[in-house]
Design brief:
Blueprint lengths: L4 E2 L5 E4 L1 H4 L6 E3 L5 E10 L4 E6 L8 E2 L10 E6 L8 E16 L2 E8 L11 E4 L3 E12 L10 E5 H13 L7 E2 L2 E6 L2 H7 L5 E7 L4 H5 L6 E5 L2 E2 L3 H9 L6 E8 L2 E8 L1 E2 L21 E4 L10 E2 L7
Parallel strand pairs: 6-11, 11-21
Antiparallel strand pairs: 1-2, 2-5, 3-4, 4-5, 7-8, 7-10, 8-9, 9-12, 10-11, 11-12, 13-20, 14-15, 15-16, 16-17, 16-18, 18-19, 21-22
């Protein structure tokens, strides 16, 4: 089960991609208990967003707000279907952080953080400001640190401005086009033991492999290069590099500074286009029941969290 937010009177709604991914049928149940079959119009694995459509009219829609206008300490309201059984549940809190970086399934995401209660069943539901404007889509909660310490009141939402930036592509193409690709796989070598294992002297982010014919290879980047900066931003971690590339578009030219054979080299790279993970998403029916969610994240330092774990399987996630 998962939550969703209606964004048009004629039946378009938002949820998380992970809520509907791989499902064979989607059933959307509204607050009046009317149920509809839904089809996937578009989906994006990077932002974990899916756009669905039901055949309905005259629906009450959410009013879009602006996540960029939020301030820490503002009122936040979460509406969803915790445990997949308690539709229309409202919880309240504050915005705890505006740009918390967490890693979900090896992907770095910049998310809003709230202390409003979030439970399995809330993913894909709305995060609203004190005026009732939609400012985020719930994506995860943290339940414990890496050492097993229980955590409460730490939940995350995708900023609505990010969602708005891809809606056009999702509606017309079914996926997000034009995303930049650097064309390499990088590895963090951040400890003495890691440096010894890889046989390097300096710590940092190293090129582990290259996509044949990709942007990095064409520009002259080679396996073993230490990436020091990307487009003027110092790179201290693989997640930071991924986030920097995500800010660019296919066709952009950037300067990448690498350390190789004892000296720095500045390489001009024209970024390629990333192959979408969602180009083959089925457009007929998938499995979803409005209002809900299922993911939790583990972390140890309040900044970068581990991959989401699929908790509470008893509730059908």
């Amino acid at each position: 089960a998962g939550s969703g937010v209606i964004i048009s009177e004629d039946g378009y709604l938002l949820t998380n991609n992970h809520v509907i991914d791989g499902a064979s049928q989607i059933k959307v149940t509204l607050s009046n208990n009317e149920s509809y079959d839904a089809k996937v119009i578009g989906a994006d694995d990077t932002f974990d967003i899916a756009l669905l459509k039901i055949e309905a009219s005259g629906l009450t829609v959410a009013t879009f707000g602006s996540s960029s206008d939020l301030e820490v300490g503002e009122t936040s309201i979460v509406i969803g279907n915790p445990l997949g059984k308690l539709g229309g549940t409202v919880t309240a809190g504050i915005i705890s952080s505006l740009n918390r970086t967490i890693t979900i399934d090896n992907k770095s995401m910049e998310l809003l953080q709230t202390d409003a209660a979030i439970n399995p069943g809330n993913s894909g539901g709305g995060l609203f400001d004190g005026n009732g404007n939609l400012v985020g889509i719930i994506v995860a909660k943290s339940v414990q640190t890496s050492d097993g310490t229980a955590v409460e009141s730490i939940g995350f939402a995708i900023p609505i401005d990010n969602v708005k930036s891809i809606l056009g592509d999702l509606k017309t193409k079914g996926y997000v086009s034009g995303r930049a690709a650097l064309g390499l796989t990088a590895v963090n070598v951040l400890t003495d033991s890691a440096a010894q294992r890889y046989g390097v002297e300096k710590k940092g982010v190293y090129v582990y492999s290259l996509v044949s014919g990709g942007a990095a290879e064409k520009a002259g980047i080679v396996v073993g290069d230490l990436i020091e900066s990307f487009d003027g931003t110092a790179i201290t971690g693989n997640e930071q590099l991924s986030a920097a590339v995500l800010q660019k578009k296919a066709g952009d030219t950037v300067e990448v500074v690498v350390y190789r054979d004892g000296e720095e080299k500045t390489i001009s790279v024209t970024l390629g286009e990333r192959e979408s993970d969602n180009k083959t998403t089925p457009r007929n029916s998938n499995g979803f029941n409005a209002n809900g969610g299922n993911n939790s994240s583990n972390g140890s330092n309040g900044r970068s969290y581990g991959s989401l774990e699929d908790f509470f399987n008893d509730f059908g996630f």
